[in-house]
Design goal:
single chain, Rossmann fold, binds adenosine-5'-diphosphate, binds iron/sulfur cluster, binds magnesium ion
Protein backbone atom coordinates (compact mmCIF):
# COMPACT_ATOMS: atom_id res chain seq x y z
CA UNK A 1 0.00 0.00 0.00
CA UNK A 2 1.29 3.50 -0.85
CA UNK A 3 2.20 6.03 1.80
CA UNK A 4 -0.71 8.23 2.87
CA UNK A 5 -0.53 11.92 2.10
CA UNK A 6 -1.82 12.74 5.55
CA UNK A 7 -1.12 10.12 8.19
CA UNK A 8 -2.84 10.63 11.55
CA UNK A 9 -1.97 8.06 14.21
CA UNK A 10 -3.33 7.72 17.71
CA UNK A 11 -4.29 11.41 17.85
CA UNK A 12 -5.78 12.50 21.17
CA UNK A 13 -7.07 16.00 21.90
CA UNK A 14 -8.67 17.37 25.07
CA UNK A 15 -10.27 20.66 26.08
CA UNK A 16 -9.01 21.64 29.53
CA UNK A 17 -11.43 23.08 32.10
CA UNK A 18 -11.60 23.31 35.91
CA UNK A 19 -14.22 20.53 35.80
CA UNK A 20 -11.80 18.22 34.03
CA UNK A 21 -10.71 17.46 30.50
CA UNK A 22 -13.25 17.03 27.71
CA UNK A 23 -11.50 14.30 25.77
CA UNK A 24 -12.92 15.19 22.38
CA UNK A 25 -10.60 12.99 20.28
CA UNK A 26 -9.35 9.68 21.64
CA UNK A 27 -6.58 7.88 19.83
CA UNK A 28 -7.84 8.30 16.26
CA UNK A 29 -5.96 6.79 13.27
CA UNK A 30 -6.82 8.20 9.87
CA UNK A 31 -5.00 7.98 6.54
CA UNK A 32 -5.76 10.18 3.55
CA UNK A 33 -4.21 8.97 0.29
CA UNK A 34 -3.37 11.14 -2.71
CA UNK A 35 -6.36 11.87 -4.92
CA UNK A 36 -8.87 10.22 -2.60
CA UNK A 37 -11.93 11.48 -0.74
CA UNK A 38 -12.23 10.28 2.84
CA UNK A 39 -15.56 11.00 4.47
CA UNK A 40 -15.74 11.53 8.22
CA UNK A 41 -19.20 11.15 9.71
CA UNK A 42 -20.80 11.04 13.13
CA UNK A 43 -23.30 12.88 15.26
CA UNK A 44 -22.72 16.45 16.30
CA UNK A 45 -20.21 16.66 19.17
CA UNK A 46 -18.39 13.43 18.39
CA UNK A 47 -15.10 15.23 17.70
CA UNK A 48 -14.96 15.56 13.90
CA UNK A 49 -14.00 19.26 13.78
CA UNK A 50 -11.59 18.89 16.70
CA UNK A 51 -9.83 16.07 14.86
CA UNK A 52 -9.60 18.09 11.64
CA UNK A 53 -8.38 21.33 13.17
CA UNK A 54 -6.11 19.52 15.64
CA UNK A 55 -4.39 17.67 12.81
CA UNK A 56 -3.23 21.04 11.39
CA UNK A 57 -2.66 22.53 14.85
CA UNK A 58 -5.33 25.17 14.41
CA UNK A 59 -6.82 24.72 17.87
CA UNK A 60 -6.24 27.28 20.59
CA UNK A 61 -6.24 26.75 24.37
CA UNK A 62 -8.04 25.29 26.21
CA UNK A 63 -7.49 22.62 23.52
CA UNK A 64 -4.39 20.49 24.05
CA UNK A 65 -3.02 17.70 21.91
CA UNK A 66 -2.35 14.98 24.43
CA UNK A 67 -0.91 12.26 22.20
CA UNK A 68 -0.37 10.77 18.78
CA UNK A 69 1.32 11.90 15.60
CA UNK A 70 0.41 13.64 12.34
CA UNK A 71 2.74 13.30 9.35
CA UNK A 72 2.27 15.07 6.04
CA UNK A 73 3.95 13.53 2.98
CA UNK A 74 3.20 16.04 0.23
CA UNK A 75 5.09 16.22 -3.06
CA UNK A 76 6.52 19.65 -2.23
CA UNK A 77 7.87 18.83 1.26
CA UNK A 78 11.07 17.11 2.37
CA UNK A 79 11.51 13.37 2.00
CA UNK A 80 10.19 11.58 5.07
CA UNK A 81 7.40 14.14 5.45
CA UNK A 82 6.67 16.88 7.97
CA UNK A 83 5.94 15.98 11.58
CA UNK A 84 3.05 18.41 12.02
CA UNK A 85 2.87 18.16 15.79
CA UNK A 86 6.57 19.03 16.14
CA UNK A 87 6.64 21.67 13.38
CA UNK A 88 7.94 25.17 14.11
CA UNK A 89 5.77 28.24 13.54
CA UNK A 90 7.53 28.82 10.22
CA UNK A 91 7.03 25.24 9.06
CA UNK A 92 3.37 25.45 10.04
CA UNK A 93 2.95 28.64 8.06
CA UNK A 94 4.37 26.93 4.99
CA UNK A 95 2.17 23.92 5.54
CA UNK A 96 -1.18 25.57 6.19
CA UNK A 97 -3.17 26.69 3.20
CA UNK A 98 -0.32 26.00 0.71
CA UNK A 99 -0.32 22.27 1.47
CA UNK A 100 -3.42 21.71 3.60
CA UNK A 101 -6.35 24.11 3.20
CA UNK A 102 -9.58 24.17 5.17
CA UNK A 103 -13.11 25.13 4.26
CA UNK A 104 -14.46 25.98 7.69
CA UNK A 105 -17.79 24.85 9.06
CA UNK A 106 -19.51 28.20 8.82
CA UNK A 107 -18.67 30.50 5.93
CA UNK A 108 -20.46 33.37 7.66
CA UNK A 109 -18.07 33.20 10.60
CA UNK A 110 -15.01 32.35 8.54
CA UNK A 111 -15.11 35.46 6.34
CA UNK A 112 -14.18 38.85 7.75
CA UNK A 113 -17.42 40.91 7.63
CA UNK A 114 -15.67 44.28 7.17
CA UNK A 115 -13.41 43.30 4.25
CA UNK A 116 -14.46 42.87 0.63
CA UNK A 117 -14.26 39.25 -0.47
CA UNK A 118 -11.70 40.09 -3.16
CA UNK A 119 -9.37 41.54 -0.52
CA UNK A 120 -9.72 38.39 1.56
CA UNK A 121 -8.89 36.20 -1.42
CA UNK A 122 -5.89 38.37 -2.22
CA UNK A 123 -4.71 38.18 1.41
CA UNK A 124 -4.54 34.41 1.19
CA UNK A 125 -2.73 34.56 -2.13
CA UNK A 126 -0.23 37.21 -0.99
CA UNK A 127 0.61 35.21 2.12
CA UNK A 128 1.35 31.99 0.26
CA UNK A 129 2.24 32.79 -3.34
CA UNK A 130 5.15 35.12 -4.14
CA UNK A 131 3.99 36.77 -7.38
CA UNK A 132 3.33 40.31 -8.72
CA UNK A 133 0.10 41.94 -7.55
CA UNK A 134 -1.54 41.88 -11.02
CA UNK A 135 -1.00 38.14 -11.31
CA UNK A 136 -2.47 37.57 -7.87
CA UNK A 137 -5.50 39.70 -8.73
CA UNK A 138 -6.00 37.78 -11.96
CA UNK A 139 -5.72 34.52 -10.01
CA UNK A 140 -8.32 35.72 -7.47
CA UNK A 141 -10.75 36.58 -10.26
CA UNK A 142 -10.06 33.26 -11.98
CA UNK A 143 -10.77 31.33 -8.75
CA UNK A 144 -14.02 33.22 -8.14
CA UNK A 145 -15.16 32.48 -11.68
CA UNK A 146 -14.13 28.85 -11.30
CA UNK A 147 -16.66 28.48 -8.48
CA UNK A 148 -19.33 30.35 -10.43
CA UNK A 149 -19.06 33.86 -8.95
CA UNK A 150 -18.72 36.80 -11.37
CA UNK A 151 -15.57 38.92 -11.15
CA UNK A 152 -17.67 41.99 -10.19
CA UNK A 153 -18.28 40.31 -6.82
CA UNK A 154 -14.64 40.91 -5.86
CA UNK A 155 -15.88 44.23 -4.44
CA UNK A 156 -18.76 42.76 -2.44
CA UNK A 157 -18.79 42.43 1.33
CA UNK A 158 -19.74 39.02 2.74
CA UNK A 159 -23.18 40.24 3.85
CA UNK A 160 -23.97 41.16 0.24
CA UNK A 161 -23.61 37.54 -0.84
CA UNK A 162 -25.98 34.62 -0.33
CA UNK A 163 -24.99 31.72 1.93
CA UNK A 164 -24.10 29.59 -1.08
CA UNK A 165 -21.95 32.36 -2.57
CA UNK A 166 -20.10 32.88 0.71
CA UNK A 167 -19.40 29.16 0.88
CA UNK A 168 -18.11 29.28 -2.71
CA UNK A 169 -15.79 32.16 -1.79
CA UNK A 170 -14.39 30.00 1.01
CA UNK A 171 -13.87 27.15 -1.43
CA UNK A 172 -12.20 29.48 -3.95
CA UNK A 173 -9.92 30.74 -1.18
CA UNK A 174 -9.03 27.21 -0.10
CA UNK A 175 -8.18 26.13 -3.65
CA UNK A 176 -6.47 29.34 -4.75
CA UNK A 177 -2.93 28.22 -3.84
CA UNK A 178 -3.42 24.68 -5.14
CA UNK A 179 -3.13 22.71 -1.90
CA UNK A 180 -2.67 18.96 -1.96
CA UNK A 181 -5.17 18.35 0.84
CA UNK A 182 -8.47 20.16 1.36
CA UNK A 183 -10.33 19.63 4.61
CA UNK A 184 -14.01 20.46 4.21
CA UNK A 185 -15.87 20.77 7.47
CA UNK A 186 -19.60 20.52 6.79
CA UNK A 187 -19.12 22.66 3.66
CA UNK A 188 -22.75 22.64 2.65
CA UNK A 189 -24.59 22.31 5.95
CA UNK A 190 -27.32 24.93 6.17
CA UNK A 191 -27.60 25.35 2.42
CA UNK A 192 -30.61 24.14 0.49
CA UNK A 193 -30.13 20.97 -1.55
CA UNK A 194 -30.13 22.75 -4.90
CA UNK A 195 -27.23 25.01 -3.87
CA UNK A 196 -25.58 22.05 -2.13
CA UNK A 197 -25.77 20.08 -5.37
CA UNK A 198 -24.20 22.86 -7.40
CA UNK A 199 -21.38 23.53 -4.94
CA UNK A 200 -20.46 19.88 -4.54
CA UNK A 201 -20.58 19.31 -8.27
CA UNK A 202 -18.09 22.15 -8.71
CA UNK A 203 -15.84 20.92 -5.89
CA UNK A 204 -15.57 17.40 -7.30
CA UNK A 205 -15.03 18.68 -10.81
CA UNK A 206 -12.19 20.84 -9.49
CA UNK A 207 -10.80 17.89 -7.54
CA UNK A 208 -10.56 15.87 -10.73
CA UNK A 209 -8.99 18.78 -12.56
CA UNK A 210 -6.54 19.95 -9.86
CA UNK A 211 -5.89 16.56 -8.25
CA UNK A 212 -6.17 17.39 -4.55
CA UNK A 213 -7.37 15.00 -1.83
CA UNK A 214 -10.36 15.74 0.36
CA UNK A 215 -11.18 15.03 3.98
CA UNK A 216 -14.93 15.61 3.85
CA UNK A 217 -16.60 16.07 7.23
CA UNK A 218 -20.35 15.87 7.58
CA UNK A 219 -23.08 14.43 9.73
CA UNK A 220 -24.89 13.45 6.50
CA UNK A 221 -23.80 9.86 5.96
CA UNK A 222 -26.09 9.49 2.96
CA UNK A 223 -24.08 12.19 1.19
CA UNK A 224 -20.77 10.50 1.99
CA UNK A 225 -22.02 7.22 0.57
CA UNK A 226 -22.31 8.97 -2.75
CA UNK A 227 -19.11 11.00 -2.86
CA UNK A 228 -16.41 9.39 -0.68
CA UNK A 229 -13.96 6.60 -1.51
CA UNK A 230 -13.69 5.60 2.14
CA UNK A 231 -15.98 6.41 5.04
CA UNK A 232 -14.79 6.77 8.62
CA UNK A 233 -17.34 6.82 11.43
CA UNK A 234 -16.65 8.57 14.74
CA UNK A 235 -18.51 8.19 17.99
CA UNK A 236 -17.65 9.80 21.33
CA UNK A 237 -14.24 10.96 20.12
CA UNK A 238 -13.26 7.53 18.82
CA UNK A 239 -13.18 6.00 15.40
CA UNK A 240 -15.63 3.11 15.46
CA UNK A 241 -15.65 1.93 11.86
CA UNK A 242 -13.76 2.57 8.64
CA UNK A 243 -14.40 0.95 5.28
CA UNK A 244 -14.33 1.53 1.55
CA UNK A 245 -17.66 3.15 0.73
CA UNK A 246 -19.09 0.24 -1.23
CA UNK A 247 -18.31 -2.18 1.61
CA UNK A 248 -19.89 0.11 4.18
CA UNK A 249 -22.96 0.49 2.03
CA UNK A 250 -23.45 -3.24 1.57
CA UNK A 251 -22.28 -4.48 4.96
CA UNK A 252 -21.83 -2.00 7.79
CA UNK A 253 -20.68 -3.84 10.90
CA UNK A 254 -20.68 -1.45 13.85
CA UNK A 255 -24.13 -1.00 15.41
CA UNK A 256 -23.65 2.78 15.48
CA UNK A 257 -22.98 2.85 11.74
CA UNK A 258 -26.00 0.66 11.18
CA UNK A 259 -28.01 3.16 13.22
CA UNK A 260 -26.80 6.07 11.11
CA UNK A 261 -27.66 4.15 7.96
CA UNK A 262 -31.20 3.54 9.21
CA UNK A 263 -31.68 7.21 9.97
CA UNK A 264 -32.27 8.38 6.41
CA UNK A 265 -34.74 7.16 3.81
CA UNK A 266 -33.96 5.45 0.56
CA UNK A 267 -35.96 6.36 -2.49
CA UNK A 268 -35.76 2.78 -3.72
CA UNK A 269 -36.36 -0.62 -2.20
CA UNK A 270 -38.88 -1.51 0.43
CA UNK A 271 -40.62 1.13 2.45
CA UNK A 272 -39.31 1.10 5.96
CA UNK A 273 -39.83 3.06 9.11
CA UNK A 274 -36.87 5.25 9.96
CA UNK A 275 -35.41 3.82 13.14
CA UNK A 276 -32.96 6.55 14.20
CA UNK A 277 -30.83 6.11 17.29
CA UNK A 278 -32.45 6.83 20.65
CA UNK A 279 -30.58 8.67 23.37
CA UNK A 280 -27.56 10.90 22.97
CA UNK A 281 -23.79 10.52 22.96
CA UNK A 282 -21.99 10.28 26.33
CA UNK A 283 -20.35 13.14 28.20
CA UNK A 284 -16.78 13.28 26.95
CA UNK A 285 -15.34 14.40 30.27
CA UNK A 286 -13.21 11.74 31.88
CA UNK A 287 -12.64 8.09 31.07
CA UNK A 288 -15.00 5.99 29.02
CA UNK A 289 -14.58 2.40 30.11
CA UNK A 290 -15.53 -0.25 27.60
CA UNK A 291 -17.80 0.60 24.68
CA UNK A 292 -19.34 4.10 24.90
CA UNK A 293 -22.30 2.99 22.76
CA UNK A 294 -23.67 0.53 25.36
CA UNK A 295 -26.73 2.55 26.50
CA UNK A 296 -27.91 3.00 22.90
CA UNK A 297 -26.98 -0.34 21.39
CA UNK A 298 -29.45 -3.10 20.66
CA UNK A 299 -26.65 -5.69 20.73
CA UNK A 300 -25.18 -4.71 24.11
CA UNK A 301 -24.23 -7.36 26.62
CA UNK A 302 -22.31 -7.41 29.91
CA UNK A 303 -19.12 -8.02 27.96
CA UNK A 304 -19.44 -4.64 26.22
CA UNK A 305 -18.75 -2.79 29.47
CA UNK A 306 -15.18 -4.13 29.46
CA UNK A 307 -14.48 -4.36 25.77
CA UNK A 308 -11.25 -3.13 24.21
CA UNK A 309 -12.22 -0.41 21.71
CA UNK A 310 -9.27 -0.90 19.39
CA UNK A 311 -10.23 -1.32 15.75
CA UNK A 312 -10.11 -4.83 14.36
CA UNK A 313 -10.78 -6.33 10.94
CA UNK A 314 -14.37 -7.13 10.11
CA UNK A 315 -14.65 -10.72 8.96
CA UNK A 316 -16.76 -10.26 5.89
CA UNK A 317 -16.69 -13.93 4.94
CA UNK A 318 -18.95 -14.92 7.77
CA UNK A 319 -17.83 -18.51 7.33
CA UNK A 320 -15.00 -18.74 9.80
CA UNK A 321 -12.35 -17.89 7.20
CA UNK A 322 -9.40 -15.78 8.37
CA UNK A 323 -9.70 -12.03 7.81
CA UNK A 324 -7.37 -10.51 5.20
CA UNK A 325 -3.86 -9.53 6.37
CA UNK A 326 -4.43 -5.82 5.65
CA UNK A 327 -7.96 -5.08 6.67
CA UNK A 328 -9.79 -2.63 4.47
CA UNK A 329 -12.83 -2.75 6.70
CA UNK A 330 -12.29 -2.28 10.43
CA UNK A 331 -14.66 -1.88 13.34
CA UNK A 332 -14.28 -1.19 17.06
CA UNK A 333 -17.05 -3.62 17.97
CA UNK A 334 -15.60 -7.10 18.43
CA UNK A 335 -19.03 -8.73 18.66
CA UNK A 336 -21.10 -7.58 15.70
CA UNK A 337 -19.96 -8.35 12.17
CA UNK A 338 -21.46 -7.35 8.86
CA UNK A 339 -23.33 -10.67 8.93
CA UNK A 340 -24.76 -10.47 12.43
CA UNK A 341 -28.52 -10.25 12.12
CA UNK A 342 -30.32 -7.56 14.04
CA UNK A 343 -31.59 -8.74 17.40
CA UNK A 344 -35.16 -8.30 18.58
CA UNK A 345 -36.26 -4.83 19.54
CA UNK A 346 -37.67 -4.31 22.98
CA UNK A 347 -39.43 -1.09 23.89
CA UNK A 348 -40.14 -0.84 27.57
CA UNK A 349 -43.36 1.12 27.76
CA UNK A 350 -44.08 3.22 30.87
CA UNK A 351 -47.04 0.93 31.73
CA UNK A 352 -47.61 -2.62 30.63
CA UNK A 353 -45.24 -5.23 29.26
CA UNK A 354 -42.62 -4.61 26.60
CA UNK A 355 -43.98 -4.50 23.08
CA UNK A 356 -43.03 -7.76 21.37
CA UNK A 357 -40.69 -7.45 18.45
CA UNK A 358 -41.31 -8.94 15.06
CA UNK A 359 -37.65 -9.73 14.38
CA UNK A 360 -37.28 -12.33 17.13
CA UNK A 361 -35.38 -14.60 14.78
CA UNK A 362 -32.44 -12.27 15.25
CA UNK A 363 -32.11 -13.49 18.82
CA UNK A 364 -31.74 -17.08 17.74
CA UNK A 365 -29.06 -16.25 15.23
CA UNK A 366 -27.04 -13.87 17.33
CA UNK A 367 -23.30 -14.14 17.52
CA UNK A 368 -22.17 -16.96 19.83
CA UNK A 369 -20.30 -14.59 22.06
CA UNK A 370 -23.49 -12.68 22.64
CA UNK A 371 -25.40 -15.78 23.59
CA UNK A 372 -22.91 -16.25 26.40
CA UNK A 373 -23.62 -12.72 27.68
CA UNK A 374 -27.32 -12.00 28.10
CA UNK A 375 -28.49 -8.39 27.96
CA UNK A 376 -28.23 -6.81 31.41
CA UNK A 377 -31.56 -5.87 32.89
CA UNK A 378 -30.60 -2.21 33.46
CA UNK A 379 -30.38 -1.62 29.73
CA UNK A 380 -34.14 -2.09 29.34
CA UNK A 381 -34.81 1.31 30.83
CA UNK A 382 -34.44 3.00 27.47
CA UNK A 383 -36.19 2.26 24.24
CA UNK A 384 -33.78 -0.37 22.95
CA UNK A 385 -33.25 0.21 19.33
CA UNK A 386 -32.09 -2.15 16.67
CA UNK A 387 -30.81 -0.97 13.35
CA UNK A 388 -32.85 -2.19 10.43
CA UNK A 389 -35.66 -3.47 12.61
CA UNK A 390 -37.67 -0.30 12.94
CA UNK A 391 -40.85 -2.04 11.86
CA UNK A 392 -40.76 -4.15 14.96
CA UNK A 393 -40.88 -1.15 17.19
CA UNK A 394 -44.62 -0.87 17.36
CA UNK A 395 -45.16 -4.57 17.02
CA UNK A 396 -47.15 -4.34 13.82
CA UNK A 397 -46.12 -5.22 10.29
CA UNK A 398 -45.85 -2.40 7.81
CA UNK A 399 -46.78 -2.41 4.19
CA UNK A 400 -43.77 -3.61 2.21
CA UNK A 401 -44.42 -2.63 -1.35
CA UNK A 402 -41.23 -2.75 -3.41
CA UNK A 403 -40.43 0.38 -5.35
CA UNK A 404 -39.53 0.15 -9.00
CA UNK A 405 -35.78 -0.01 -9.39
CA UNK A 406 -35.03 -2.40 -6.56
CA UNK A 407 -33.22 -1.85 -3.29
CA UNK A 408 -30.67 0.94 -3.57
CA UNK A 409 -28.72 -0.37 -0.62
CA UNK A 410 -27.94 -3.56 -2.49
CA UNK A 411 -26.56 -1.82 -5.53
CA UNK A 412 -23.08 -0.52 -6.19
CA UNK A 413 -22.35 3.16 -6.75
CA UNK A 414 -23.80 4.47 -9.94
CA UNK A 415 -21.67 6.34 -12.49
CA UNK A 416 -23.31 9.60 -11.39
CA UNK A 417 -23.59 9.18 -7.63
CA UNK A 418 -23.71 12.84 -6.68
CA UNK A 419 -26.44 13.51 -9.19
CA UNK A 420 -28.46 10.66 -7.74
CA UNK A 421 -28.06 11.82 -4.17
CA UNK A 422 -28.81 15.43 -4.79
CA UNK A 423 -31.42 14.75 -7.42
CA UNK A 424 -33.73 13.76 -4.59
CA UNK A 425 -34.89 17.31 -4.14
CA UNK A 426 -36.41 17.55 -7.57
CA UNK A 427 -37.39 13.91 -7.92
CA UNK A 428 -39.07 13.40 -4.58
CA UNK A 429 -42.62 14.15 -5.53
CA UNK A 430 -42.37 12.29 -8.78
CA UNK A 431 -40.91 9.14 -7.27
CA UNK A 432 -42.33 8.95 -3.77
CA UNK A 433 -44.61 5.91 -3.81
CA UNK A 434 -47.00 7.21 -1.17
CA UNK A 435 -48.01 10.24 -3.23
CA UNK A 436 -49.89 8.11 -5.73
CA UNK A 437 -51.19 5.84 -2.98
CA UNK A 438 -52.69 8.68 -1.04
CA UNK A 439 -54.47 10.18 -4.05
CA UNK A 440 -55.82 6.73 -4.99
CA UNK A 441 -56.97 6.09 -1.45
CA UNK A 442 -58.82 9.41 -1.29
CA UNK A 443 -60.46 8.56 -4.59
CA UNK A 444 -61.60 5.18 -3.32
CA UNK A 445 -62.87 6.64 -0.06
CA UNK A 446 -64.81 9.28 -2.00
CA UNK A 447 -66.46 6.66 -4.20
CA UNK A 448 -67.32 4.59 -1.14
CA UNK A 449 -68.81 7.66 0.50
CA UNK A 450 -70.89 8.45 -2.60
CA UNK A 451 -72.22 4.88 -2.73
CA UNK A 452 -73.40 5.17 0.86
CA UNK A 453 -74.85 8.70 0.43
CA UNK A 454 -76.23 8.87 -3.16
CA UNK A 455 -77.80 12.28 -2.56
CA UNK A 456 -74.35 13.76 -2.21
CA UNK A 457 -72.79 12.19 -5.29
CA UNK A 458 -69.78 13.92 -6.77
CA UNK A 459 -67.73 13.98 -3.60
CA UNK A 460 -65.10 11.78 -5.18
CA UNK A 461 -64.70 14.16 -8.10
CA UNK A 462 -64.44 17.18 -5.86
CA UNK A 463 -61.67 15.65 -3.72
N1 LIG B 1 -13.67 25.27 22.82
C1 LIG B 1 -14.16 24.18 23.42
N2 LIG B 1 -14.09 24.06 24.77
C2 LIG B 1 -14.56 22.96 25.39
N3 LIG B 1 -15.13 21.90 24.74
C3 LIG B 1 -15.23 21.98 23.42
C4 LIG B 1 -14.76 23.11 22.68
N4 LIG B 1 -15.00 22.89 21.36
C5 LIG B 1 -15.59 21.68 21.29
N5 LIG B 1 -15.73 21.14 22.52
C6 LIG B 1 -16.31 19.84 22.82
O1 LIG B 1 -15.59 18.85 22.11
C7 LIG B 1 -16.47 17.86 21.64
C8 LIG B 1 -16.29 17.66 20.16
O2 LIG B 1 -16.68 18.85 19.48
P1 LIG B 1 -16.53 19.02 17.91
O3 LIG B 1 -15.17 18.59 17.52
O4 LIG B 1 -16.94 20.39 17.57
O5 LIG B 1 -17.58 17.94 17.39
P2 LIG B 1 -18.25 17.79 15.94
O6 LIG B 1 -17.43 18.57 14.97
O7 LIG B 1 -18.24 16.33 15.69
O8 LIG B 1 -19.64 18.31 16.06
C9 LIG B 1 -17.88 18.27 22.02
O9 LIG B 1 -18.24 17.57 23.18
C10 LIG B 1 -17.73 19.74 22.31
O10 LIG B 1 -18.64 20.12 23.31
S1 LIG C 1 -22.35 -4.78 20.74
FE1 LIG C 1 -21.33 -4.00 22.54
S2 LIG C 1 -19.27 -3.45 21.87
FE2 LIG C 1 -20.52 -3.64 20.06
S3 LIG C 1 -21.28 -1.54 19.65
FE3 LIG C 1 -22.84 -2.58 20.87
S4 LIG C 1 -22.38 -2.01 22.96
FE4 LIG C 1 -20.53 -1.59 21.74
MG1 LIG D 1 -18.05 20.20 13.72
Amino acid sequence: MTQPLLDIRGLSIAYRSPDGDTRAVRGVDLALHAGSIVGLAGESGCGKSTLAYGSVRLLRPPAVITGGSVTYHGRRVQAGGVDVLAATAQQLRALRWREIAIVFQSAMNALNPVLRVGEQLLDALRAHTPAPEEQLRARAVEMLELVGIPAARMRSYPHELSGGMRQRVMIAMALSVEPEVVIMDEPTTGLDVVVQREILRQVFELKDRLGFSVLFITHDLSLLLEVADRVVIMYAGQMVESAPTAQLRSGAAHPYTRGLLSSFPSLRGERRELAGIPGSPPDLRGELVGCPFVPRCGFATDACGQVDMRLGPVDRGGNGSAPPAVAAHVSACPFVTAHTPSPAVTVVAPAGPPVPATAAAGDRDRDDRHRAHPVPSGHGRRARWTPGAGDGRRGRPRSRRPCPGGDQSQQGLSPQPLERHLGRAGGLLRTAPWVGDRAGRRERLGQEHDRQAPGRAGTAQRR
